[in-house]
């Protein structure tokens, strides 16, 4: 069936006039009449009948016009969907993030973005550094937001640093090292509560020990989330090595205390990552701009 002919027929049916349909479509009236006759011949059923000086729909024509309405409405919806997506008004962005930005940065960024783009879906997955980059490289995510001290960046990843954050050693307020200056060797004798293997903070801590030739600490408790490690230290056991973003409010409220390790001052990077040599979609670019504008 000729879809163009069906749509032309629908215009004549809804306007009630070949002339009005021609004006609306910006073509000549004879051209409309000719194409309607061709469409009638194609389907083998009469659509219009003469009535006085004009024409009216046949019974079949009325039924077909009702069916055609659904097609035209769907076409308008699809065109609107395409335009919204092209202009970044709709669609889905898959974001994978390491635990630090997922817990302490992305909620604000996502809220700001959604406030201006309510029809765009944000699918956010939280995981460790290794898995975050794998998901990005394997096209399971559009953006990876990373927070940590990784030394080697995957070659396939485009890396844009947003800012640096200080790393702190923290203990419970009644710990003997609370608010004290100690050596790295003494600090490493404490039991540590850390995230699982593959987390950037754990790898950074062991790299620090290797750099200063100090025996790495015992990982006494291991969790898959940041908040669990913080709560365990607050409960009075062990130490943690963690971003100041995650624990600053607890230190300020004296629920945790810093330990100042002599000659060790470490920052880590917060970065937004995409696939190298790949043009960003309008949606992805819009989210990245939202993040940058919020800094």
UniProtKB/TrEMBL annotation:
PANTHER family: HTH-TYPE TRANSCRIPTIONAL REGULATOR (PTHR30126), HTH-TYPE TRANSCRIPTIONAL REGULATOR GLTR (PTHR30126:SF40). It holds the Pfam family LysR_substrate. Belongs to the LysR transcriptional regulatory family. The keyword Transcription applies. PROSITE patterns: HTH_LYSR. Keywords: DNA-binding, Transcription, Transcription regulation. Residues 1-58 form the HTH lysR-type domain. This is LysR family transcriptional regulator. The keyword GTP-binding does not apply.
């Amino acid at each position: 069936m000729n879809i163009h002919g069906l749509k032309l027929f629908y215009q004549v049916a809804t306007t009630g006039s070949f002339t009005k349909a021609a004006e609306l479509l910006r073509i000549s009236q004879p051209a409309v009449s000719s194409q309607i006759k061709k469409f009638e011949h194609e389907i083998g059923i009469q659509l219009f009948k003469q009535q006085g000086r004009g024409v009216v729909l046949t019974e079949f024509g009325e039924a077909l016009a009702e069916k055609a309405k659904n097609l035209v409405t769907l076409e308008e919806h699809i065109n609107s969907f395409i335009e919204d997506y092209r202009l970044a008004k709709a669609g889905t962005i898959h974001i994978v993030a390491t635990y630090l930005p997922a817990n302490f940065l992305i909620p604000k960024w996502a809220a700001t973005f959604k406030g201006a783009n309510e029809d765009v879906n944000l699918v956010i997955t939280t995981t460790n550094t290794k898995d975050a980059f794998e998901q990005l490289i394997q096209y399971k995510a559009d953006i990876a937001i990373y927070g940590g001290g990784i030394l080697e960046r995957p070659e396939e990843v485009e890396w844009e640093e947003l800012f640096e954050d200080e790393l702190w050693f923290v203990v419970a307020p009644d710990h003997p090292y609370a608010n004290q200056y100690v050596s790295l060797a003494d600090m490493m004798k404490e039991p540590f509560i850390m995230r699982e293997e593959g987390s950037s903070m754990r790898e950074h801590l062991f790299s620090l020990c290797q750099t200063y030739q100090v025996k790495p600490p015992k990982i006494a408790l291991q969790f898959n989330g940041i908040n669990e490690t913080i709560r365990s230290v607050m409960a009075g056991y062990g130490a943690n090595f963690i971003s100041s973003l995650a624990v600053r409010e607890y230190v300020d409220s004296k629920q945790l205390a810093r330990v100042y390790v002599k000659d060790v001052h470490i920052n880590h990077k917060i970065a937004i990552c995409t696939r190298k040599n790949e043009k960003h979609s309008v949606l992805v670019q819009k989210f990245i701009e939202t993040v940058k504008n919020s800094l």
